[in-house]
Write a structure and sequence with these properties.
The complex is a heterotrimer of chains A (406), B (287) and C (340). Chain A is an alpha/beta fold. Helix content of chain A is 42%, strand content 23%. Chain A is built from 13 helices and 15 strands. In chain A, strands 7, 8, 9, 10, 11, 12, 13, 14 and 15 form a 9-stranded mixed beta sheet that branches. A 6-stranded mixed beta sheet of chain A has the order 2-3-1-4-5-6, sandwiched between helices. In chain A, a hairpin with a 6-residue loop joins strand 13 (355-359) and strand 14 (366-378). In chain A, helix 3 (81-93) packs parallel to helix 4 (106-119), helix 5 (147-160) packs parallel to helix 6 and helix 11 (313-332) crosses helix 12. The longest helix of chain A has 23 residues, at 2-24. The model of chain A is unreliable at 17-27 (pLDDT under 50). Chain B is globular. Chain B has one domain (2-214). In chain B, helix 1 packs parallel to helix 5 and helix 1 (2-28) packs across helix 11 (237-256). Chain B is mostly helical. Chain C has 2 domains: 23-277, ABC transporter involved in vitamin B12 uptake, BtuC, CATH 1.10.3470; 294-340, no CATH class. Classes of the chains: A alpha/beta (406), B mainly alpha (287), C mainly alpha (340). Chains B and C meet through helix 3, helix 4, helix 10 and helix 12 of B and helix 6, helix 12 and helix 14 of C.
Chain lengths: 406, 287, 340
């Protein structure tokens, strides 16, 4: 009797599952599996990317080359690579997703890369920034950036603008190590010296001791890279310890003065020099007319859709990722097979809200402009204000013209 | 050197305030309350909302934070926790973990996932510069004094008042205390509420130094547990000393040996527990 | 005493006698698990990870449910196993079965060594020491980025086909069969151990260590033994995860992993072995289902589900089902025997 019951339960379960999957495979819309951290410690990142993706679809409709675009969002919580991989697998094998996109952090992208290779599905990496990601599968295209792409120009800028002696502070995880290594290398190659370096744990509740240590070492400047979510705590301690009064300049990777949190950082952040590949054209920034019309309209639309949020560089990677997918589909007349997709995407160039950008046919990473910005207080709010631009930088952080010339 | 010591004491003071309540629930009432951080977080958010949205002065938000957390503590204790007192530890783990998850998601929904940022009033900001190499953060000084007063008050309540002597009796032997006509259930409920309130106060004070975001309950759970485990249960001085030791070790470790700074607090804890398995001043160790 | 899991009270004599021989429900469970390969072809990657989670939870149940040792740091061994398998495969030895054995041995060895630190003091102390050790191990792994790849994870793990024949495929077919096979083998071992005299003394120690000590049982040595075994099993589970996903990163050491396994055990019903496996499966299904319905706020609902279960369905899913079952068989009015 027991076995009978179990058998019946099993049969019911199986029928339910089969009918569910049958219902899924009727039409042939183009499904994009978007895997992002929508909860957990990195949700701010997932939300920005997702908002960018949605904005693009809202502006450009959900029909491309005769195919309806369907977005399947999966939350991988940002901390479990095996979940990311499983979702990627699941999206490809069960949901018939023809394009994978998203991928908030590097380990997650690394874990999912074999799925793209095995299934020959294009994988548009939007916001993971480790350099090696695109090498892990021939089907990876990056619409975002590599971290070193904007760290190297910052180091160069510092060395050429009178900064002699820098103390580095990075979060003790792989992107932090990359940033530290790249900054130190470029900076010392160009005549600077590193006064010292410190790595802070990812879950550091208190930056006080580190700030004190740096202050006591009295370097000319600090180079800092922490995830955006940690920035307020870091800035607070720099301010409390009076680093600015001690004449120590603050040079940061753009993530630290992320637009979404910038206004809350307080006066501690004013004067911070950062580099990034995108600065939104917010209404409060003076000289707004200097921004490109693409940027202005993107910023306006984003703010309208997401009240209370400023678009940051993550939003624009989502937006550009969708642009890349749409453009490729138009070029291939709706075919999204891995090889055709990648072939069409290589060398593609367009004008993004961030400026002109293209996909390097060699590396499948973007070539884009990097901006050097300074945090300013304008009309009661804080803004990143561009004051320098390094044009067409490749994934190693070297301007393309220069790289060709070598 | 002195600055490091001073900062360590300030961090320890915060840790003490946030976790002393847990040493009561976990240590005395034998309730595995992994959701202690939820009550703390509530106080922190209440303070932030009052300060940033309604413009209430900073010092006035502190009692509000205490009240909100204590109130939530009372409600949750009456509605749920008391049903679980006689259940196994595993049910308690499951329930309180569930509470942590639900509270984190609710906080993200209501308050957004970003860090909460407050501007301190001018008289608490900045640093005293005493002499070369010794800078005192005004806010940290405030923290130390404040937490010192709270610890003193708790000690006085515990040792000098009728409530305190009843509580001590209940802690020593709940059955006998009950038989003597002490309403142990209510006593514990009040203690629990105060503990939650203190946690809320700690979080409200900590917004400036620690980070307040929806993951707060999970992020600081480990720290709270460390204090309780190392400090032993049933006293005020145990958790206080444990908090100070951990705070100083944490700060000093980060300052002097930043390469292994993150190890230190855990290393100290493991060493401390291997040396004194029942905490520095554990009652069980005394017996 | 913190760990006084009433839900998993020492089984009565007749229950024990009933458990030792294979019951039809147990056979049905494994048959169903094997049949899932054919019945749920779309769910195999999920089921493979559930089987791995089940094995990890099983090792936690052995510690917690059988021997009454509460650990919040069991992920240390899961991670060590994962990295042993990953490093082997990375350095050119991708044979999966020997990788598993190596991972089990190394993790077991680490478990043996650390058991002397862990098995002292009260339950709270154990909880914190295990947690502390696992955090230290994680930090150490982060420090050794040259070896572990740091938070970006280990790159270039090339796992060979099983027995040189079955390659790991995109649909998770091989992964599922492999994971289920290993789970079953380990389960047989654990089941054997639990019903051996060794296992019975463990249950006795859980009930009352002092009495067992007075009876002449070497309590310390028994606990060292079970801790070592549980560590080895966790290591095998970690190795399985590495081999089936061909990836391993620092997350395997995380507090999340430890607490997830603990939750699976509690959710399923501690001390029942099957509860751990069912709990891991339920947890994963629940997460996936809720994350699909509401990708942004699924944690809220999972939290509510935990709370509801703790309040209304004590003893885990398995305990609850057994209670329901007995109640149904006896008629609704009869009181249930296993109720707490």
């Amino acid at each position: 009797m027991k076995t009978k019951f179990l058998l019946r339960a099993a049969v019911i379960a199986v029928t339910a599952v089969l009918s569910f999957s049958a219902a899924q495979a009727e039409d042939k819309p183009l499904r994009i599996g978007l895997v992002l951290p929508m909860t957990g410690p990195f949700e701010y990142l997932g939300r920005q990317v997702y908002a960018g993706v949605k904005l693009y679809m809202e502006q450009h409709g959900d029909w491309v080359a005769g195919r309806k675009i369907e977005l399947l969002l999966r939350d991988d919580t940002g901390t479990a690579p095996e979940t990311t991989k499983r979702y990627a697998q699941d999206l490809v094998t069960n949901d018939n997703a023809e394009v994978l996109a998203g991928f908030g952090l590097s380990p997650l992208a690394f874990a999912a890369a074999p799925v793209a290779t095995q299934a020959k599905v294009p994988m548009v990496v939007m916001s993971a920034g480790a350099s090696a990601i695109s090498e892990k599968s021939p089907y990876i295209i990056r619409s975002g950036y590599t971290l070193v792409q904007y760290v190297a120009p910052l180091a160069l800028w510092a060395a050429k603008n009178g900064v002699k002696n820098v103390y580095t502070l990075v979060t003790d995880y792989a992107p932090g190590h990359d940033a530290e290594a790249m900054f130190s290398k470029v900076f010392t190659d160009n005549g600077g010296t590193i006064a010292g370096s410190v790595r802070v744990p990812l879950k550091s509740p208190d930056y006080g001791p580190y700030a004190q240590r740096i202050k006591d070492a009295n370097p000319g400047a600090v180079f800092a890279f922490v995830p955006g979510s940690e920035a307020p705590a870091l800035m607070k301690q720099f301010q409390t310890r009076g680093l600015t009064e001690a004449g120590i300049k603050l040079i940061c990777v753009g993530d630290v003065t992320d637009e979404d949190i910038l206004d809350g950082l307080g006066d501690a952040a004013v004067g911070t020099i950062t580099s990034l590949f995108y600065t939104p054209a917010l209404a409060g920034v003076q000289g707004r007319e200097k921004f490109t019309p693409e940027n202005i309209s993107f910023t306006n639309a984003f703010e309208k859709d997401n009240p209370g949020m400023r678009p940051d560089h993550m939003a624009v990677t989502g937006y550009d990722g969708m642009h890349l997918i749409y453009s490729v589909l138009e070029k291939t007349h709706g075919a999204a097979g891995g090889d055709a997709f990648v072939a069409a995407a290589k060398g593609m160039s367009w004008v993004s809200p961030r400026g002109p950008m293209s996909i390097d046919p060699e590396t499948r990473d973007p070539i884009q402009d990097v901006y050097i910005r300074k945090v300013e207080r304008i009309g009661g709010h804080l803004y990143n204000v561009d004051f320098d631009r390094i044009a067409r930088v490749d994934n190693k952080g070297v301007p393309v013209a220069q790289a060709v010339g070598k | 050197m002195l600055t490091v010591l001073f900062d360590g004491i300030a961090t320890g003071a915060l840790l003490f305030l946030s976790s002393v309540g847990l040493s009561v629930t976990l240590g005395v009432m034998n309730f595995v309350n992994l959701a202690h951080g939820v009550f703390a977080m509530t106080g922190g958010y209440v303070a932030v909302v009052l300060l940033n949205r309604w413009g209430v002065p900073f010092l006035a938000t502190l009692p509000a934070a205490f009240a909100a957390s204590a109130g939530l503590g009372v409600v949750v204790e009456r509605l749920f926790y008391r049903k679980l007192y006689d259940a196994g530890a595993l049910e308690q783990v499951l329930f309180t973990t569930g509470l942590v998850f639900a509270a984190m998601a609710a906080a993200a929904f209501l308050m957004g996932s970003q860090h909460q940022i407050i501007q301190l009033p001018a008289f608490l900001a900045g640093q005293f510069h005493l002499f070369k190499g010794f800078d005192l953060g005004v806010y940290r000084l405030f923290l130390i004094v404040f937490c010192g007063c709270v610890a003193l008050a708790l000690q006085l309540v515990l040792s000098r008042t009728r409530f305190g002597s009843r509580l001590r009796a209940a802690v020593d032997n709940a059955t006998v205390a009950n038989a003597l006509g002490i309403n142990v259930g209510r006593l514990f409920a009040v203690t629990f509420a105060v503990g939650c309130g203190l946690a809320g106060l700690g979080a409200a004070l900590g917004v400036e130094i620690l980070n307040l975001d929806p993951s707060f309950p999970l992020k600081f759970l480990v720290y709270f547990l460390i204090v309780v485990a190392a400090g032993g249960t049933g006293t005020i001085s145990g958790p206080l000393l444990a908090s100070l030791v951990l705070g100083i070790c944490d700060v000093a470790g980060k300052y002097y040996v930043p390469d292994i700074g993150a190890f230190i607090i855990y290393g100290v804890m493991v060493a401390m527990l291997i040396w004194r398995p029942h905490g520095l001043f554990g009652r069980r160790a005394v017996r | 005493m913190i760990v006084e899991a009433k839900s998993a009270a020492p089984p009565t004599e007749d229950e024990r006698r009933l458990r030792a021989p294979w019951r039809s429900v147990e056979i049905a469970f494994w048959v169903l698990a094997a049949a899932a390969y054919l019945l749920l072809p779309h769910q195999l990657p999920l089921l493979a990870q559930a089987a791995i989670g089940g094995l990890f939870a099983l090792s936690v149940d052995l510690l917690l449910g059988i021997a009454g040792v509460m650990s919040l740091g069991h992920a240390a061994f899961f991670g060590i196993g994962g990295y042993v398998a990953g490093l082997l495969a990375q350095s050119g030895w991708g044979e999966p079965l020997s990788g598993l054995v190596a991972a089990g041995l190394v993790a077991g060895g680490c478990g043996f060594l650390s058991s002397f630190l862990v098995l002292r003091g009260s339950d709270l102390t154990r909880l914190m020491v295990t947690l502390g050790i696992s955090l230290l191990v994680m930090e150490a792994a982060n420090r050794m980025t040259w070896l572990t790849g740091g938070s970006d994870g280990l790159q270039g793990i090339d796992v060979w086909p099983i027995f040189g024949v079955w390659e790991f495929d995109l649909y998770g077919r091989t992964a599922y069969v492999y994971a289920l096979g290993v789970l079953f083998a380990c389960f047989l071992l654990v089941r054997r151990v639990v019903h051996s005299p060794f296992g019975l003394t463990l249950r006795g120690i859980k009930g009352n260590p002092r009495r067992m000590s007075a009876l002449g049982t070497p309590v310390g040595r028994r606990l060292v033994g079970v801790y070592t075994l549980a560590a080895a099993l966790a290591g095998i589970a970690g190795a399985l995860l590495t081999q089936t996903t061909q990836f391993v990163s620092l997350d395997v050491f995380g507090f999340d992993k430890s607490s997830e396994a603990l939750l699976a055990v509690v959710l399923g019903g501690a001390g029942t072995l099957y509860g751990a496996i069912v709990g891991a499966l339920m947890l994963m299904e629940l997460e996936t289902l809720l994350a699909r319905i509401t990708p942004e706020y699924w944690q809220f609902w999972i939290g509510i589900a935990f709370m509801a279960q703790a309040l209304y369905a004590r003893g885990g899913i398995l305990g609850f089902t057994v209670r329901l079952w007995t109640r149904l068989r006896r008629g609704v009015a009869a009181p249930s025997r296993t109720a707490p």
